[in-house]
Amino acid sequence: MRKIITTLLLTMFFSAPAWAGTYNLDIARTEVNITGTPMEKITINGGIPGPTLRFKDGEDVTVNVTNHLKEDTSIHWHGLLIDPAMDGVPTFNKFPGIKPGETFTYHFKIRQTGTYWYHAHSGGQEQDGVYGSIIVDPKGKYPIQADRDYVVVLSDFSPEESTEIMANLKMSSDYYANARRTLGDFFHDVKEDGFGKAWKTATDWGDMRMMQTDLADVTGYTFLVNGKSPEQNWTGIFKPGERVRLRFINASAMSFFDVRIPGLKMSVVQSDGQNVEPVSVDEFRFGVAETYDVIVTPQENKAYTIAAEPIDRSGFAIGTLATAEGMKGEIPAGRPRALLSMADMDMEQMMIDDPDMEMTPADMISGWAKTGTPDGQKALSYADLRYAGIQKDQRPPERTIEVNLGGNMERYIWTINDKKFSDAEPIRLKYGERVRLKFTNHTMMAHPMHLHGMFVQLENGQPAAKLPNKHTVIVPPGQSYSVLLTADEAGEWAFHCHLLYHMASGMMRKVVVAKLDQSDVPAEKGGHHAN
Amino acid sequence: MQIRALLLATCLMLPVSAFAADEMGSMTPEEMQHEHGGGIFHMFRLETEIGSNTDGTTLSGWDFDGWVGTDENKLWLKSEGERADSKLESAEFWALYSRNIATFWDAQAGIRYDNKPKSTTYLTLGFNGLAPQWFETEAHLFISNKGDVSARLREENDFLITQKLILQPYAEVNLFAQDVIEQDVGAGISDGQIGLQTRYEFTKKFAPYVDVHYGRKFGETASIAKSNGEDKDELVGAIGLRLMF
Fold first, then answer.
1. Cβ contacts of residue A10 below 8 Å, gap of 6+?
2. What ipTM does this complex have?
3. Whether the Cβ atoms of residue B176 and residue B185 lie closer than 8 Å to each other
4. Which 196-215 residues of chain B touch chain A by CB within 8 A?
5. Are A371 and A283 in contact (CB under 8 A)?
6. Which tens digits make up the pLDDT trace of A136-188?
7. Do A411 and B71 touch (CB under 8 A)?
8. What angle do CA A101, A107, A108 make, to 5 degrees?
9. Does the pLDDT value for residue A237 go beyond 60?
């Protein structure tokens, strides 16, 4: 604290830029051993994940990113408000990507606080290891104090290369499906529900050529906490009674989690880097690319298990909060895998296909949303999130932009408004415009939709002043969800599903925010190349 | 001959290195699109098997099938054939342009060349896709270089005993619009086949199987077979290996 005060005084004295830090990231293929089998993966500064970059609000940041790969790379600063030329999406805003052997110098000024992350936006490098966390400290005190502060980066680690996974999905979209319905399941249904009902269920799904078990497109993952497997057991140390801030980041390529710490209530204080009014929960469903900061106050001198269970229930990402290294808590029993239901389907389309379809009350309950939360326990809902400040822009939207999320699971094609990125024109917004994005999910998978460069306000039923900011919004299967956007950052912004292979197969758009006067469009500035 | 056919099939697959990135120069918007929905992929499946019919004739066969291309436009390749007691009985080689026309369907047009039983070239038109209730469907119309018209319909479906042990019943039927004397077939339904393949998918890419199928000739074609002193039907058992790459 004294250091900060000294710095503050010095700053005032010299009236120079408050903070200016330089950071270096080296991206290279390196041997890692996470699963017990050494293999070559893409690392940042030798590690997976890369280092935690700790910035300060107002800091002038310089990051030198050196590419030691044989292919182009890039780094995108997920959730940061930024000069578009520094956003790191190749070909957008004239950012060329980082060629082999080159160093690209990112230069940007921090103008926010919170927990964010960074990752490659080139091919599938994000799956192959190019991701890390960002903490932005406020200039002054944290509004909510904690004694300890840990980053908890969740990820899904595959022994396969991302290019191989993509090729396999295109070869056979159920390549990784390892929990499909079997004849045995059918006979079980016959026994439970009678032949008529079992036959109808099987043939209803067969008519649509959709799988009731389609919760995850890719399997074979080891789930990691801060780059460590459950066996390696990442551990955060606490003293009983201390307040511990956990900065959860879902840096997975494809995996949604249900996150819990049995025995501890979690007070959610931040979502996607933006402070929210504290909500006490037992667990939360965690979309790919989202972040949540929670405060926990472990009272006992024991090990608490951080358990993040993927929604296909194919394992756990495990970490431990303990009073000493080497302690291990109990790993909770896995929860049953949900089956998708009629409620996870695009109702509109179903009514067109079969207007006489009979739905039982059970059919109306989403299978995807069945978290398996025990009775009496509280799972976070989007509706609970209330912005901790007062939203500056509370205008009603001037227009609504429909964002229809579609796909062809059989051929592994994913679209926005029926078009792949490769076939689509950008979405154009006027600078300063206030719009509503209305997502409608016509598919049976949840899509974590991420917009670069700007936060959206979730229309979650809270009053206009309290709508929470998000950079990534989960749109559940068969559902609609809307958000408000103030287009106050000019530039070309990527807008995509953050499931890596959905983006790679087309579920992406360019959003262009242009000032009315063309000369007002920001010129290229900042970064330069240094060889 | 079977080896030669396999070699040919392998050669057809060579131009498949479509995922190569441009290492020189910055990424172009076209390359960015290529990476987000415009990419070229491929799928090839090869089944080779050996077995016997109830007469004790040793039968071996291959069935190759696959594509290279984008989501919308593909080159579809197919080859199948059979040897009976080391003698090549049938060998087909197909090359079709395949265009995605609906969620689950491709329309196809191209050439089929049969080396055996008679060297014949066909103009081929058809559909390939997934029908409701998960029926993998191939339906093709052929016009031979002699002007004869014929058609083939094939259906198959997967039933899972476990995630790896899979039953695949299939059925195929051939139809002719006219008698084709040099091929010993008569107009109408000429022949059909039903079978059951039971495979164990160690991985999706490597699956040994056992196969039992029953084939028979119908109508005029059956009569011709009878007058030639051939059986009109046959039951075959075989073991094989299914590879995907």
1. none
2. 0.89
3. yes
4. 204
5. yes
6. 999 999 999 999 999 999 999 999 999 999 999 999 999 999 999 999 999 99
7. yes
8. 145
9. yes
